[in-house]
Amino acid sequence: MIEISKDKSKLQLDVIHGFLTETYWAKGRTIEEVETSIKHCLCFGVYLDEKQIGFARVATDYVVFAYIMDVFILPEYRGKGYSKKLMNVVINDEELQNCKVWMLKTADAHGLYKQFGFTELKHSEKVMERLLI
Asked: 114: exposed, middle or buried (C-beta count within 10 Å: 0-12, 13-18, 19+)?
């Protein structure tokens, strides 16, 4: 049975770091950076038989803005609907229900996020970014 929990004490840092450091969006992120990012965000771990198989984190002020990041299901567990269950839990979390603006970035999972109401930027001319990469 799959479990999705916000209990940070259950997070398996080695699993999270091991996956993230190989992704296009977090390649080379140190374990210390992963730990710091977890400390400062609302996090969701996905577990199957006590083993962590997925993760998502949300940077938020709990009132106006929620930014979803580092969403993943380990490759060997994909295709079973776990990412949809994770996203459903994230966007329906009671702590985030006041947030009016939700954002995320993706290069390859548009289909997943569109199912949860995410769209292309309506007013991209109003959005700016500062990249230090």
From this structure: exposed
Q: Average pLDDT over the chain, rounded to whole?
A: 95
65-73 vs 2-5, strand pairing mode: unpaired
Predicted TM-score (pTM) of the model is 0.94
Give 36-60 pLDDT, tens digit per residue.
999 999 999 999 999 999 999 999 9
Closest by CA position to 121, among listed 102, 97, 107, 108: 102
Cα 42 from Cα 11, distance rounded (Å): 12
Secondary structure class of 84 (helix, strand, coil): helix
For the chain, give me the number of helices (H) and strands (E)?
Answer: 4, 5
Distance, CA of 129 to CA of 41 (rounded, Å): 20
| Strand-strand pairing, 101-103 and 65-73 | parallel
The number of residues in the chain equals: 133
Contact 67, 60 (CB under 8 A): yes
Phi-psi region of 53 (alpha: psi -120 to 50; beta: other; left: phi over 0): alpha
